[in-house]
Amino acid sequence: MAEKRVTPSKDVFVNCPFDPSYKPVFDAIIFCVSAAGFQPRCSLEFDDASEIRITKILRMIGECPYGIHDISFSQLDPSSGLPRFNMPFELGIFLGCKAFGSKIQKAKIALVLDREPYRYQKSLSDLSGMDIKYHANDPTQAVGAVRQWIRVVSRRQDIPGPDSIWRLYEHFTRALPRICRIQRIRPEELTFVDYADIVNRWLRESKRSRTASITK
Amino acid sequence: MGSKTIEALDPREAIAELPEIGLSPFHSKLNKTLLNRAVKEVVEAERVRDRDRIVLEHLPLVKMIALRVHENLPISISIDDIVHAGIMGLFEAVTKFDPRKEVAFSTYATQRIKQSILDYLRQSDDRKPGRSPAIELAVDDKVGEKRGSEKLEKQELRVVLSAAMKTLPERYQKVLVLYYSNEMTMDEIARVLGISLDRASKIHRASLEKMALALAKLGIRGEVSEAG
């Protein structure tokens, strides 16, 4: 009997802050992952209230061979004065799966992002020795870091360069308000699922439209 | 980042580099039909805007090729028509250009523009008795090479054109000088003269028609005067 070939999953677990000040970086990362032909996943995609949050997160981490973890918001919450642990906690689960999980889980690959060099040594010194990338809260740098990482870990040759992705992202950000206007929704009202869906459709349609115009 | 700067990268090039994007597994609560229509509309509008931008950026190239071709053609052939044929070629070039072929767009467009002008000249020549092989020569790369008799003809032509131009109002003369001698775009001319782009184009067209009429009075008939 022929051996069944399984298509490798392209799901990328995006473990990033949901703070409004981080949104430009978050949106750019989601776009970059999609433009590279991968599938961004995020805990914001859940709308099933019957499943408890940690179960959903564990299931998602288990399903994603790739993970992008941004620890730049591991800081005191100004409103409560308490530290926020969600991102380092989910990074820990991801690394735990990689260390102790099955063969598939051991193949997991993570990108750890922070906003400035060596900041993690004060807040999360256990990560010392890991190759952590920095974005300075700048979406362009974040796109550059994510694209380079996807290119290296996936070993795929067909991933557009950082300049191309950024250029496309600029185009997309100009198109998004117009798409939203037709949808009669404000861009800030889009959920993660709406946003990821629009990014995917825009990329597919842009590719189809340009190819059609070239081959016509 | 990469070897090219963000500014230098053409959006068409960036889109051509995209890998195959799979269908989204997400099911947003947005209206799917409306969303598909919105994305299609916006992408199409962007494509047309990009195309028009590239066409506008390369209009001086059309003008340069058209002028070079025109100076080797009989006066009866209107420069306006040559430019028009060239613009058609440019539109075709923008539509059919494939950035993945690693040929500079201007190189590809030059060939398309020349081909379109040649096609136009052949078509108009077919309609007249006694086809002129000079048309192929005019579009050929060697058009820049001057021959003695042609030089003389050109000098005479300049005198005649200069006389015809003097019959035009001052503003009309300015538009022609800025367009053909200074090689400015219509947009630039409009800004220099403090008029709208549409008005500048109308003055340009009217100037050519008036010049054709003036030339007709001197015994030189062109297609513009017939059209006008």
Helicity range of chain B: 55-70%
Tell me the helix content of chain A: 40-55%
What radius of gyration of chain A results from the CA coordinates? 18 Å
- CATH superfamily (homologous) name of the largest domain in chain B: RNA polymerase sigma factor, region 2, helix turn helix motif
**DSSP strand tally of chain B:** 0
Strand content of chain A: 5-15%
Query: Do you know the CATH topology of chain A?
Result: Rossmann fold
Number of structurally distinct domains of chain B = 2
Strand order of the largest sheet of chain A: 2-1-3-4-5
* Number of separate structural domains of chain A: 1
**Average pLDDT of chain A:** 86
CATH architecture assignment name of chain A: 3-Layer(aba) Sandwich
The portion of residues forming beta strands of chain B comes to under 5%
Which fold does the CATH topology of the largest domain in chain B refer to?
Rna Polymerase Sigma Factor, Chain: A
Which sequence of SSEs, written as H and E, runs from N to C of chain A? EHEHEHHEHEHHH
Largest sheet of chain A: 5 strands, parallel
| Low-pLDDT residue spans of chain A | none
**What structural class should be given to the helix and strand makeup of chain A?**
alpha/beta
